Please model this.
Amino acid sequence: MDLQTTIYLVVGATFALYIGIAIWARAGSTSEFYAAGGQVGPVMNGMAIGADWMSAASFISMAGLISNMGYGGGLFLMGWTGGYVLLAMLLAPYLRKFGKFTVPQFIGDRFYSKSASTVAVACLLVASLTYIIGQMTGVGVAFSRFLGVTSETGIYVGMGIVFLYAVFGGMKGITYTQVAQYCVLISAYIIPAIFISIQLTGNPIPQLGLGSNIVGQDVSLLHKLDLVVTDLGFANYTTSDAGGMLNMFVYTMSLMIGTAGLPHVIMRFFTVPTVAAARSSAGWALIFIGLLYTTAPAVAAMAKTNLLRTITPGVVMGNADPYAADSQLVYADRPDWMKRWEKTGLLKFEDKNGDGRIQYYNDKSKSDAFKAKAEAAGWKGNELTVNADIIVLANPEIALLPDWVIALVAAGGLAAALSTAAGLLMAISAAVSHDLIKNVFVPDISEKNELLAGKISMAVAIVIAGYLGLNPPGFAAGTVALAFGIAASSLFPAIMMGIFSKKMNKEGAICGMLAGLFITLFYVFAAKGIFFIKGTEYLDLIGGPNSFFGITPEAFGAIGALVNFGVAFLVDKMTPEPPAHIQAMVEAVRIPRGSKAVSGSH
Amino acid sequence: MEDSAKAYWSATLGLLGKILVVWFLVSFGAGILFAPALNSIHLGGYPLGFWFAHRGRCTYSSR
Model:
C-alpha cells in the first residue's frame, strides 16, 4: 500500500470516529449547545481542555518555530504553560463560582453595565478572530499536505470542514470528540518523537534523548546542533534569544496573561458540575498538556538536526567540512518528502549558484568570518526555503519513518487544527448570539433564532478568518501569539480586577479595556496592516519596526495590559465606587461555598 | 461568618502570592533573566538556562 492511501485510510478512520461521536451527542437545547449541560467529568474535561490547548499552533507550528528560533522559541513553552498556572489559580475557580456562560456575561454582571459587556464582546471578537486566522494557516498546511494541493486550496477545503464540524455538534459534541482528538494527536506527536530519538541518540525517551550523545559520536545532540548551525551562519541554537532579553520577557508575559484571558479555554471550566471538579479538571489538563509541551523541544531540535542531516549528511553524522562542495545534497537526488512538500508551495528550492546542489544557510548572517567562508565556497545565497509551519508534519518523513507514522501525524495535525478552530467558533458564536444580540439588542429573541444567529456568526467568522489566513500576518504560532497579546491587553486585566478588586467600578473597567485594546491594536496594525490586510501597514507613524524599546508586535500585549491596569485605576479613583450589592457579590465569589451548576439567563 | 470569610480570603491571597513568586523565579528568573549565567553550567548535555526555558518550565508546572 502506498503512502497516500495509508494517509487517506488513517485520516478517514479518525474522522469517522469524530463524526460518529458528534452525531451520538448531538446538541438539543441552547443550554446543552453551549456548556454541555454542565455534566462532563474532570478527566474527560481535562482531555478536552488539552485538545483545545493543542491547537494547530501548538501541534503544527510551535516546534517548527522553536526549531528555527532555538532557545528563544522557548518563550512559547514558557508562555503557554506558565499562563496555564495563572488561569487555573487566579481565574478558573472564581469564574466557575460566578456561574455564567461567557466572559462578557461575567464582565457585564460584575461591572453592572451592558456597555462593559459590549466592550468585552468586541475585545473577545478581535482576539478570537486573530486566533482563528492562525489556526486557518495551520489548517491550510495540514490539508495541503494531506491532499497534495497548494496551501491556498488547503485553506478553502479546511474552511468548509471546520464549519460543518462546529455547526454540527455544538459544545457537547465537541467535548467528547475532543477527548478522541486528544488521544489521536498526542500519540501522533509522541510516537514519531520516540522513533526519531532512537534513530539519532539511541535513547527511546525524547525528553532525555535531546541531551544524549548522537549515535556513534562522543558529542551531545544539542552541542552538535549548536556547532552545525553556527557553521551555517545561524545563531547558536541554545542561546539565541528572541529579539533581546526585554522582548523575550514581555513576549513570554503576553502569552501567559493572554492564555489566562482567552475565552475558549475559560469556557471549558463551565462544563463541569462543581468548583472542585473545575480544579481537578485543571489538574488533569495540565498533565495531558505537559505530555506535549515536554516533547516539543525535543521534536524541534531533532527536526532541525534531521533537516540539516538530509541536506548535509556528512556534517551532522560525521565531521565533514560544511563548506566542501560535495558536502551538500544534489538537488536531483533529493528525497521524496521534499518533492511532496514542494507541491504545497511551502518548501522551495532555487539554484542560485547553478551548481545543482542545495545550499541551506543563513545568508543574512552578520558575521564577517562566516560571510568570507560562504563567499570562498561559492555560495550565492540561501537556496532552500522551508516554511516553519511544515516542520512537525514533515518531521516523520524527513526521518524516513514508516508510512503509518506519517499518516498518524497527518491525522493528528488535522485533529489539532479542527479542534481549536471549532472551539473558537463556539466562543465567537456565543459572544455574538448571546452576549450581543440577546443581552443588548433583542432581549426577547426566541431560542431557535438565537441558535441560528450563533450559526450565522460562525459562518461569517470562518470566511473572514479563511480570507485573512490566505495571507497570514505570520507563521501559525506567531499569529496566535498576536491573538494572545490582544486578549492579554483587553480581557485579562478586566477579569482580574473583577475578582481581586472589590472597588473597581464600571467606568474604570470599560476605559481600561478600551485603552488596552486600542494601544495594542495600534502597535500591531502598524507592523501587520490594518486588520491584517496586506499593504495597509503604517510603520512610519510609530517610527519604524519595533520602535517601542525593540518590542515586537507579538510581544506588545503585556505593555497593553499595563496600560489597561493603569487607566482603569486612574478612572476608578475619579468616579464613584460600585454599589454595595456588587461588592457583596465579589465577596461571595471568593469563597467556594455554595457553588452550583451554571445558570445562564435562558 | 464574616471573619472566617475574611480569614479565608487573606489565607488564599497569601498562598497565591507564594506560588506566584516561585512561578516568576522559575520561568522568568531562571528561564530568561539569569539564563545566560546558568548556561555556563551543564546538566546531562543541556546548558542549564536553556534547560529551564525549554524543559524545566513544564516539569515545574506539573507540580
